[in-house]
Amino acid sequence: MRPVRAPDLRAWKSDGKKIAVLTAYDASAAALVEKAGIDVILVGDSLGMVIQGRQTTLAVTIDDIAYHSKAVARAVQRPLVVADMPFLSYQTGVDDAVRNAGRLIQQGGAAAVKLEGGNPAICEVVARLVEIGIPVMGHLGLTPQSYHQFGGFRKQAKTPEDAETLLQQARALQTAGAFSLVLESIPFGVAAKVTGALEIPTIGIGAGPHCDGQVLVMHDILGLADYSPPFAKVYAPVGEQMINAFENYAAEVRSGKFPPDTES
Ligand code: KIV
């Protein structure tokens, strides 16, 4: 089974092959994701919310991502493992970005990194990482690390001016060498235009059906979180099934039904 590599995604776009991306944060879940045939696993800084129980992704550290990435990378052969660069691990300059991205590859076992934004300073970081051999996935639109700047998790690129800025930044990221681009929470018409304008694939989340691939957070599709964004679809009510299992277990412990003699 040949591993998916970053350059493959560009070829898949030209072949019209859609890309399935899902987050995972630990070895057991990553192994199941691989069995399901998912192409790309994102070790997202969303782990700050769904694993660490925080309100935003801002407190996630490079140590956190390296730890979870290592667990995921150890468990899978085929999917491309992309590790998210957390807040302040790349915005402080090219040297910091190189050191931190390098750690996610070297210690975290990732095959690519993702970072947010598309201004000239970020594009400079992307270009340098690509130059030293680290594939970079971009991320535009609702970039959660800008939570305070946006005043919350709000849909982006709603005005023609903002849509045009996003398109320019998408082009600049492609020029800097990004191999793919996440588009989060933007109008689907804008996502369609960006997708048509780029040679690299776009991966949508709350950005409509015209992107070259889609990404969702595992906890959202399994109904594990109290809150999930409106664009997420629950594919299996695993959260409810877990509560059932825990209730049955507790009831059997309390009634003495578990463990039976045969399991002692
Ligand atoms: O952190 C994350 O999981 C992400 C995806 C939602 C795109 O950035």
Please, could you describe this protein's structure?
By secondary structure, this protein is α/β, with parallel strands linked by helices. It has 2 domains: 6-233, Alpha-Beta Barrel (TIM Barrel), CATH 3.20.20.60; 239-264. The chain is 44% helix and 14% strand. The chain is built from 11 helices and 8 strands. The chain has helices spanning 6-15, 27-35, 47-50, 62-75, 94-106, 120-131, 147-150, 160-176, 188-197, 218-221, 238-255; strands at 19-23, 40-43, 80-84, 112-114, 136-141, 180-184, 202-205, 213-216. The chain has an 8-stranded parallel barrel with strand order 1-2-3-4-5-6-7-8, surrounded by 6 helices. Helix 2 crosses helix 4 (62-75), helix 5 (94-106) crosses helix 6 and helix 8 packs parallel to helix 9 (188-197). The radius of gyration is 19 Å and the shape is globular. The N and C termini lie far apart (41 Å). The mean pLDDT is 97. The structure holds 3-methyl-2-oxobutanoic acid. 3-methyl-2-oxobutanoic acid (KIV) binds at residues 23, 42, 44-46, 84, 182, 184, 205, 215, 217. 3-methyl-2-oxobutanoic acid (KIV) is lined by residues 23, 42, 44-46, 84, 182, 184, 205, 215, 217.
What is the fold-level CATH name, i.e. the topology of the largest domain? TIM Barrel
The CATH superfamily of the largest domain is identified as Phosphoenolpyruvate-binding domains
Give the mean pLDDT.
Answer: 97
Structural class: alpha/beta
pLDDT under 50 segments (min length 5)?
none
Order of helices and strands: HEHEHHEHEHEHHEHEEHH
Quickly count the domains.
2
What integer value in Å does the Rg equal?
19 Å
| Approximate shape | globular
Which ions and ligands are bound to the chains?
3-methyl-2-oxobutanoic acid
Please outline the major beta sheet.
8 strands, parallel, barrel
Strand order of the largest sheet: 1-2-3-4-5-6-7-8
Calculate the terminal CA-CA distance, rounded to whole Å.
Answer: 41 Å
CATH class of the largest domain: Alpha Beta
Total helical elements: 11
CATH architectural grouping of the largest domain: Alpha-Beta Barrel
Give the total of beta strands: 8
